[in-house]
Amino acid sequence: MRVGEAQAMVRAEGVGKKFCADGRLARQHAWTDLKARLRGRLHSDVSLREGEFWAFKDATFSLQPGQSLALLGLNGAGKSTLLKLLAGRLLPSMGRIETCGSVASLTAAGLSFRPNLTGRENVYLSAAAYGQSRTRVEQSIDEILDFADIGRFVDSPLGTYSSGMTARLAFAITAVLEPEVLLVDEALTVGDLAFQRKCLAHTQSFLGRGGILVLVTHDPHLAGSICQSSLLIHEGRARLQPVVEGIHSYMEILHDIEKKQRRVEGGKSPEPRSAPPDRPDRLAAVLDVGVRTQEDCVRSGRPAEFFMRVWSLEPREASFGIIVETEDGNRVVTGLGNPPGEPSVRLPAGESEIHATVPYLPLAPGHFTLRGFLLDPATGVPYDKEAVGYVRVEGDGSLRSGRHLRIRQLAVMPEPLWDVTPSSAQP
Predict the structure, then answer these.
(1) Residue 402 placed within a domain
(2) Considering its fold, how many domains does the chain have in total?
(3) Neighbours of 23 (CB within 10 A)
(4) 198: domain range?
C-alpha cells in the first residue's frame, strides 16, 4: 500500500450535481459555465436554470484509511454520478470534494478500457491513468496477468473479451498496482463465483492495509459484508447512515415500490389461503409459507421456524422445498427442504403443516421472499403452483457475526429436521 507522505483521504461536503434534460439547453448552459470558469467566476449555484434538475443534493461524508462506504439507491438515483465526481470525471454543481492519494475507478466494463487495444495494452493505459509509471507496470505485468488468469487472450483485442474476462483484467490491475482509494461500480459481482470470492477477499485485505473503498451496489448483502457506513441516495437526497441502518432504509424503499407495483397490477400481497383448493383435479397444494419465532419479530441470528401450510386430497408421500430469495427476486439465497431423490414426507388427507426449527437464522436484516412448493417424489412434477410468502428480518446492529448472511450465501448449517403436523393438532 503506497500510503505516501500524505495520508489517503476522501471528503465530500454538501455535494450536489444537477443536469439539464434538454440537449440544446444543456449545451448552452455548459458553454456559459465554461466561460465563467475560464474567467474564474464560477461558484456553487443552488438555483436551477431552464431545463435543469438535481440528480442529488447534500452528500456529505468523510473517509479515512481502512474505511469503506456503500452507495445505495435505486437505478437513476445518482450513485454512479457521485462516483464520477469522486474520480474527478465530473465537477460538482454545489459543495466541495477533496481526495488525497492515488484513485482508481473500477466498473463492470473495466478501468476505462479501450476495446480496440489488446489486454496487455489496456494494462499499460489504465495504470498510467492513475499515475503508475511504465517501469512500475513492467515490473508488475507478470503478476497482473497471473492474477487475471485470462491466458493467451491477453494479446487479443479487448473487444473480443467476455464481460467476465474484462472484469478479471480490471480487478487484477487494481489488485497489483494498488491505489490508495478504490471506487467500485458493481464490478465485484461480475464474473464467476470463484472470481467474485477472490475479489472480495482481496478487497477486505485492501481495507485491512489502509485502503479506502467507495462501493456502488444494488446488493445490500454485499454492502453489509464489507462496508462500515452507507450513503443512501433517494429522491434527490443523500443520507449518511451506518451500513445496517442504510440497508434497512433501502429495503424499505424496495418493499414500498413492490407493494405499489402489485396494486397497479391489480394484485395484493399474497395472503394465506384459508380453504383447500376447490379444483377437483388438484391432488395437493401449498397454502402458505413463512418464518415465525417466539419473539415479537424475526431476528437475524436467532432461532426461527420455517413452515409450509399444505393440503392434500388423500394421504400421500411428497417432496417439498422452500426457496429464499432477496427481495429483487434475482438472487437466490438458499433452498431448504427434501427434493426428489431425498426422503419424502408423509402428508395426511386434508390440511397439515410441514415445519422445522433452525438454531439460528443466518439472514441479514431486510426483506426476503419465500417460495414454497410440493412435488411428486417419483417424477419431480409440482402438484400445484408455488405459494409465495414474505418475511422481514430485523438485525442486532451487526452483519459481521459468523452466523449472519455474508454476500449472497447462507452461513453453513445442517438441513433442519422436518416434521408434519395435521392442522387439527395445531394450537
Answers:
(1) yes
(2) 2
(3) 9
(4) 9-101+180-254
